[in-house]
Design brief:
With about 280 residues, the protein is an alpha+beta fold. It has 2 domains: about 140 residues, Fructose-1,6-Bisphosphatase, Chain A, domain 1, CATH 3.30.540.10; about 110 residues, D-Maltodextrin-Binding Protein, domain 2 (3-Layer(aba) Sandwich), CATH 3.40.190.80. The chain has a 7-stranded mixed beta sheet, sandwiched between helices. Strands 11-10-12-14-13 form a 5-stranded mixed beta sheet, with helices on both faces. A two-stranded antiparallel ribbon has the order 1-2. The radius of gyration is 18 Å and the shape is globular. It is about 35% helix and about 25% strand. The two termini are about 35 Å apart. The chain is built from 8 helices and 14 strands. Bound molecules: L-MYO-inositol-1-phosphate. The site of L-MYO-inositol-1-phosphate (LIP) has 15 residues, from strand 4.
Length: about 280
């Protein structure tokens, strides 16, 4: 028997391309910005339109599959991961970038079966880079194999993270203290491209050596996590322990040595879980 999920992956790439085209076209016109949980949690009609397109076209072919989509969850859908074949979708990863026309904007889709990631597709649609990874079969950018830098020394690493406002003053202090501690290790530098999925693909393709974040969601992580691991990198929890897709925290790195040492400098703050309403 061939690969039962190959057709799903091919369809995923096709729908990500269509989604990317819509996003690029939307950048030509006016963008109306709405807010979700806070002043800095942005959403646009394009996020909602693209998510509807992705879900409806996949559902038409695979009607029994389940979906966890960022905008569907914002509208009240469940984000509990089950054993079903499940598509985990971020229609625009980097909405703030999209709103500002800052050029790291991606469509991120991960596919799980029995809660395990089977493949990931991240389309960085302004750069026109299509990252794909099927577990066990390698990671690619526009069809060309990619691999992590292999960097083992945190002192020689370029580190990515998100720098953003937090409503909770204590979390904000911890975020800034972590940044200060990591910069002072010292590392070669810290960058913040603003799309979790693109950050992971940068680690996967060797343009950066590590990425850490607390407070993202499964739809930000699912596609990119497959790309990093298939490119020879590691994805672990922010503590350095095993990665949990629903935990809202991760380190992605070029090597276990970099991931573990980075984890030792990070003070955690509570971020809750994506599946907190169910399991
Ligand atoms: C965003 C990320 C960004 C991260 C934010 C947010 P969105 O995704 O990719 O890098 O820092 O927490 O999740 O909301 O643009 O899809």
């Amino acid at each position: 028997m061939g690969d039962p999920w190959q057709e799903c992956m091919e369809d995923c790439v096709e729908v990500a391309k269509q989604a990317g085209k819509i996003i690029r076209e939307a950048l030509e016109g006016d963008i109306t910005v709405m807010h979700k949980s806070s002043q800095v949690d942005l959403v646009t009609e394009t996020d909602q339109r693209v998510e509807k397109l992705i879900i409806s076209s996949i559902k038409a072919k695979f009607p029994t599959h389940s979906f966890i989509g960022e905008e569907s969850v914002a509208a009240g859908a469940s984000s509990v991961l089950t054993d079903d074949p499940t598509w985990i979708i971020d229609p625009i990863d980097g909405t703030t970038n999209f709103v500002h026309r800052f050029p790291f904007v991606s469509v991120s889709i991960g596919f799980t079966v029995k809660k395990e990631i089977i493949f990931g597709v991240v389309y960085s649609c302004i750069e026109d880079k299509m990252y794909t990874a099927r577990i066990g079969k390698g990671a690619f950018c526009n069809g060309v194999p990619i691999k992590v830098s292999g960097q083992e020394d945190l002192n020689r690493s370029l580190v990515l993270t998100e720098v953003g406002f937090k409503n909770d003053p204590q979390r904000f202090e911890t975020l800034m203290a972590n940044l200060r501690r990591i910069i002072s290790i010292p590392v070669h530098g810290i960058r913040s491209p603003g799309s979790a999925a693109v950050n992971m693909c940068m680690v996967a393709s060797g343009s950066a050596d590590a990425y850490y974040h607390m407070g993202i969601h499964c739809w930000d992580m699912a596609g990119g996590a497959a790309v990093v691991t298939e490119a020879g990198g590691v994805v672990v929890d922010i503590s350095g322990g095993p990665f949990d897709l629903m935990s809202r925290r991760l380190i992605a790195a070029s090597s276990r040595a970099v991931a573990e040492r980075l984890a030792s400098y990070i003070t955690e703050f509570p971020v809750g879980r994506d599946d907190a309403d169910g399991s």
